[in-house]
Every structure is written in C-alpha cells, then in structure tokens.
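In this supplementary section we document a worked example of the pipeline. Step one takes a protein sequence of length 341 as its only input; no multiple sequence alignment statistics are reported here. Step two produces a three-dimensional model, which step three serialises into structure tokens for compact storage. The input and output of this example are shown verbatim.
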Amino acid sequence: MPALKCTILALETSCDETSAAVVADGYRVKSNIISSQVPTHQKFGGVVPEIASRKHLENITVVIQRAMDAAGVTFGDLDAIAVTYGPGLVGALLVGVSAAKAMAYALRVPLLGVHHLVGHIYANFLEDPGLTPPLVCLVVSGGHTSILYMAGHGEMRVMGRTRDDAAGEAFDKVARAMGLGYPGGPAVEKLALEGNPLAIDFPRAWLEEDSLDFSFSGLKSAVLNLLNRACQAGEELNLADVAAGFQQAVVEVLVEKTVRAARQVNAPRIILAGGVAANNSLRRLLTARAGQEGLAVGYPSPILCTDNAAMIACAGYFKYLKGEYASLDLNAVPNLPLEVL
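The serialised model returned by step three reads:
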C-alpha cells in the first residue's frame, strides 16, 4: 500500500486514560499525551465508569491542546481526526467520539472510527514501521484476550478468544483477593519475581483438542479457593509462590495456543498487543517458545501497550489510505464485536 503524507490527530478514551496524539504519515509520532486516572480509581479497587466519564470531560480539551502544542502543529495542519468508538465504557467512549466529531465537522476533515483492539495491534507498527503482514497477533488486556490472524491491512479474522474472563481481568481479580491493589497485573508480576512458579500447580484450561479459545475463570477460582481455605484454616501462604504459579499458568496457555495458531496459518511472525503484552514473563516465554518453531516475535514498548492515542492514529492512517471514513453520526459502541475489525 503506497505511503501518503498526512497528519492525524487521534483520541482514545475507552476506559480510564484520556489520550490525544498527533502522528504524521502513519508512523511518525509527533506527540502522544496520556492522562491516567489510576490514582483516582485505586481507592475503589478498579475503574468506576461514571467517575471515568467525568474525568474524561475534565481532561479532554486540555489533553488535546497539550498534544497539539507538543507536536508543534495547528488545527489547520490536520488532515483527519481518528477516534476509538468501541469497545469500552460507553460514557468514556462518548467523550472522545463527541470531541472527534466536533473537530472533524469544524475543520472539514475526514473522521476515522477505530476499533480499540485494532489500535492495540497497530501499536506494533509504530514500534516497527517495517512490520508487514501476514502475522498472528495475541491481544491480551483487562477486557480482551484473543488471537487474530492478520493477512493484510484491513484483513483480520478471529482465531480464538476467551470464553469468560480476560487474562488481564483474572490478574486484577487475583490481585484484589491477595490485597495487592489496582492495577493488578503489574502488582502480581512484581510479587511473582520473588516466588517459585512450580511451587503450586494451578490448573490450565486447554479446552477441546483443537480449540484456540481461552478460559481463565477456573484458574481464578482455584486461586481464590486456595486463599480462602488458607484463611479459614489459619494457614500462612507464600503469596509470592501463589503469584508466580498463577502467572505461569496464564502465560503457558497464552503462549502455547498462540504458537499453535501461527503454525496453523503458516504465519512467520507473532506480535503481542494490549496491556498484558507488557508482562515480561509473557514476552520471554513467547519469544523462547516461538523461537523453537522458527517464528519471529515482536511487541510494543510498555508505553504503547497501555491505552494511548498514537496507536489509534496509526490504525486510522490505514483507513485514511483506503478512504474508509466514518460519518458524523458515528456513535460509541461499548460492546463492539471483534468481527467488526
């Protein structure tokens, strides 16, 4: 697909990060401003949707202006506006979608509606502009765990998905039960470094023989039951071993099914995307296991694993090249399905 000179302002407000970014020519990040709400939600042990929406309203114009100033561009320099329109928290999404539509209308430039998961996938293209399909992508975050095959830009199909909890959701719930706070993923990973991943043999849900789907609810329940039994019996558990064993059980299943998917479609490369893609244990095991199969592995920098607008701009760029513009009646779709990629 030929390159095209353009400057895109993108917005991402699907959950608890208010982000705006200016990206030139698809890959050149001129600014990527992220305003996190983690301190606000920590005392509640997770994201409170109504509070998140209100915080986005407070932050959106300030974050947009900071992104424009950091990029050194004016609104007249923009060729398009990209925005996440789903999936996510409906109130949070509406803040970004409303702001994006207003700017696109006022500036008379195209509006580009981007699926949140596609944005995460395209974070890899920001990290490595030379990256080309075909490839298999493991998207793993607090709300999603899926394996996708990317045959080309705009050509993706779902190969597997979670049937219950997402991996990141399981991390958060286990962390909460262990008193580690929010966000749970980094806390569990940090504690796991002090533990023995083989000390506790937690279950792995492999499902049917040929299935590439995931299930983490049983593993989560096994951890919670272990903690509850120990509490009732007055026994003291080595929480570092619990964290290490839990993390190992999650990572092993993620890695094996992703490698299996790549072999099925003869894809030469695997990429990681989403917040849990920042987990170092997942990165190491996937790189080692894929290497045994002669597969290359790529993943974004930690800042690009979290929700950010630069990845939305990159994904929007390929819609811009194809002329796939959204109309001004674009709405937030909190349960936007994976099939709408």
